[in-house]
Amino acid sequence: GAGVSQSPRYKVAKRGQDVALRCDPISGHVSLFWYQQALGQGPEFLTYFQNEAQLDKSGLPSDRFFAERPEGSVSTLKIQRTQQEDSAVYLCASSLSGQKHNYGYTFGSGTRLTVV
Amino acid sequence: DAKTTQPPSMDCAEGRAANLPCNHSTISGNEYVYWYRQIHSQGPQYIIHGLKNNETNEMASLIITEDRKSSTLILPHATLRDTAVYYCIVPPQAGTALIFGKGTTLSVSS
């Protein structure tokens, strides 16, 4: 597609519920990133994929967070047993290059998750 | 990591130039300066990046001082649509991904 597509755009989950957030990167983009953005804050890095390989998951806040990109294109961020502190906008970004030090990313519009 | 310092907020009149400063005094020789912006309810958008020379594209100009310890993003004729949070980022050479700070909230008014 023309841009990075994320779905759903909004998600309301009851505390304790599992959620799955989807990211469709730009076709052919090698690198894919997930970020979490709390209200009034800058985006915080969660995890990075190069094709299907998850090369960095140092930003995932707990083992309730899990991300995958099994075929090197679409990615899913899963949050188990959601808590209120998980309420945030989850942003996905992709970039064409798999090389380090290329930081020209294209971001999606994000999924706003609200845990009630 | 080269950290950046930006003013929390700035105002600009529509049609005037917006000059957004960024300090990065600990930047090393091979580290680039990147600028992104985030309009309300959207994801961040790449604007421009540079190493040591001044850069210009259709969105903005980037002026980097000779000692590379600071830079200025220039929007030559700001419009209301340029109201956004602007992030100045120096990605670490050994890092994986962009690390965002709090940025500068630019408010353009008519």
Description:
The complex is a heterodimer of chains A (116) and B (110). Chain A is mainly beta. In chain A, 0% of the residues lie in helices and 47% in strands. Chain A is built from no helices and eleven strands. In chain A, a hairpin with a 6-residue loop joins strand 4 (31-37) and strand 5 (44-50). Chain A starts with a strand and ends with a strand. Chain B has strands spanning 9-13, 18-23, 33-38, 45-50, 55-56, 61-64, 70-75, 84-89, 104-109. The termini of chain B are far apart.
Secondary structure: elements and pairs:
The complex is a heterodimer of chains A (116) and B (110).
Chain A: E1 5-7, E2 10-13, E3 19-24, E4 31-37, E5 44-50, E6 53-56, E7 65-68, E8 75-79, E9 88-95, E10 106-107, E11 111-115
Chain B: E1 9-13, E2 18-23, E3 33-38, E4 45-50, E5 55-56, E6 61-64, E7 70-75, E8 84-89, E9 104-109
Parallel strand pairs in B: 1-9
Antiparallel strand pairs in B: 2-7, 3-4, 3-8, 5-6, 6-7, 8-9
